[in-house]
Design goal:
Blueprint: H1 10-14, E1 19-20, H2 35-38, H3 45-54, H4 58-71, E2 76-81, E3 84-88, E4 92-96, E5 100-104, H5 107-117, H6 126-133, H7 151-154
Parallel strand pairs: 1-2
Antiparallel strand pairs: 2-5, 3-4
Helix pairs in contact: 4-6
Length: 169
């Protein structure tokens, strides 16, 4: 692991259930910001900057985010994608009217399903790949039961991913 320890806020240690509520958006370094990356928000200020310093590439950031996720694992996640972000997020992204709201007791599965709907290929979102490989959740679509709307009905083929992401691997 890149991140061997983090200072978890006291309040977070006192609660019974953690719910991650990520906004559906792109990110130039990680490709996608979902339920796994959202847990970086639990890391206090300066330590959050330290994570970015230790992980300047997509591959290293995926490892670091999975490290953080392993310390603060949400019990449930609800992703708000009614109006998400596409393109060069998070700083220069544009609104994406996806109309999606998705939820799961396995946040890694949530990220896997949503990125599939947005046109990301298998293995393209490294946080999902690494979280699955580390046993932090299920990132393989063949192993995920989807209820509600069909995947085909929810696909967003016109969604724009970050353009420069492959340069950062």
């Amino acid at each position: 692991p890149l991140i061997k320890e983090i200072a978890v806020p006291k309040k977070l240690r006192e609660i019974d259930i953690v719910v991650s509520v990520p906004k559906l958006k792109t990110h130039e370094l990680t490709g996608f910001t979902g339920a796994v990356k959202n847990m970086l928000g639990c890391v206090p200020g300066k330590m959050k900057r330290d994570v970015h310093v230790k992980a300047p590439t997509s591959r290293l950031m995926a490892e670091a985010l999975c490290d953080v996720y392993s310390f603060v694992r949400p019990d449930f996640a609800v992703m708000d994608g009614v109006v998400g972000m596409q393109g060069s997020g998070p700083a220069a992204g544009e609104p994406a009217m996806t109309g999606l709201i998705a939820a799961s007791a396995d946040p890694v599965s949530l990220d896997a399903v949503v990125t599939h709907l947005l046109g990301y290929g298998e293995g393209e979102v490294l946080t999902t790949v690494r979280a699955h490989a580390r046993g932090l959740g299920t990132g393989d679509l063949r192993m995920i039961e989807v209820v509600g709307e069909t995947l085909e009905a929810c696909r967003r083929p016109d969604f724009r991913k970050p353009s420069n992401r492959t340069k950062l691997l």
